[in-house]
Each structure stands twice: as C-alpha cells, then as structure tokens.
Amino acid sequence: MKEGVYLFNPDLIIRPFLKERIPDDIWKNHTCIIIYPRVKEDKGLSSIEWSILEDLEEWRDGRGITALQAADIMDTGDILGSRTFKHRPISKSRMYRHEMTETSILLIHDVVTWFYKWYLFTRTTQLYQSNCQRKTTTSYDTKR
C-alpha cells in the first residue's frame, strides 16, 4: 500500500472491508475512507454476526455498510455515511458476495461524490483567496 500511495499520491483512498490498520503516515497525510459492514452506532466488531443471530429483516438506522474516516484507533473514525440493505436468510459469505457488495458500491459512489464536491469547494476557495491576496499585494498603474 505504501508504495502505491508514494507513487501516485492520491487525493482519496478507499479501503473496503479493511482488516488491518492503514499506516499512520498514510492516513495522516491523505483522506482515507474505510467501507465497513457494521451498525452505525456500534464501535465494535461482529455486527454482521449479531444481525444474523437476531435474524433482523432489515438493518435500520445505519445498520448495514458504513463509511468512516481512518483514525488513530481502528474502527473509531468519523462516520461519513451509511447504507442499509434487506437481510435474507442466507449464509454470511453469500451476504458478503451479494447484498454487502452491492450496498458497498452504492456507498462508495456516495463517498466519492461527497469528496469530489468537498475537494472542488476547497480548491476553489483556496484559488479565490490566493487570487485576492495577489490583487491586494500588486500595485496597479491607474494612470493610463
């Protein structure tokens, strides 16, 4: 991962179903979003197992797939969004291959759209401020 980040210097890194920490020097210097199956309010593991055991028909109120920002402690970053899906009586592996994958793709689209709008706004604001500073520090010849 480090080599790819250093070679391409991406503005956004998306890591679906992360199982190991993103190195500190990467998430501290790049926007890193983790796509993770869990209950939105839950900061722990095994959300999928609990939903299967409780036989929940639909994961409501943020239960499903969540997008969170990488942080110091794994699985504790700011939650940027979530999507839900209907739970069918199927195995966990089948749920990963179908419902979770489809829902994750939709959530990734949401995150990329949000990031793109935020990034454009930030860049436009920086360019505007830079342009304003340039105009105030440049003396113009008003006698023509």
Task: Record the SSE blueprint.
Elements: H1 2-8, E1 12-16, H2 24-27, E2 31-39, H3 47-54, E3 63-69, E4 79-83, H4 92-137
Parallel strand pairs: 1-2
Antiparallel strand pairs: 2-3, 3-4
Put the structure in a nutshell:
With 144 residues, the protein is α+β, with helices and mostly antiparallel strands. Helices cover 45% and strands 18% of the residues.
Q: Mind explaining what this structure looks like?
A:
There is one protein chain. The protein is elongated, with a radius of gyration of 21 Å. It has a single domain, classed as Rossmann fold (3-Layer(aba) Sandwich), CATH 3.40.50.170. 45% of the residues lie in helices and 18% in strands. By secondary structure, the protein is of the alpha+beta class. Strands 1-2-3-4 form a four-stranded mixed β-sheet, with helices on one face.
| Main sheet properties | 4 strands, mixed
Indicate the CATH class: Alpha Beta
Count of discrete alpha- or pi-helical segments spanning 4 or more residues: 4
Measured between the Cα atoms of the first and last residue, the distance is 58 Å
Low-confidence stretches: none
Beta-strand residue fraction = 15-25%
- Lateral strand order in the biggest sheet: 1-2-3-4
Please tally the β strands and state the result: 4
Shape: elongated
What level of helicity do the residues show?
A: 40-55%
How many separate domains?
1
- What CATH calls the topology is Rossmann fold
Structural class of the secondary structure composition? Answer: alpha+beta
The run of helices and strands is HEHEHEEH
Radius of gyration: 21 Å
Task: Provide the CATH architecture.
Answer: 3-Layer(aba) Sandwich
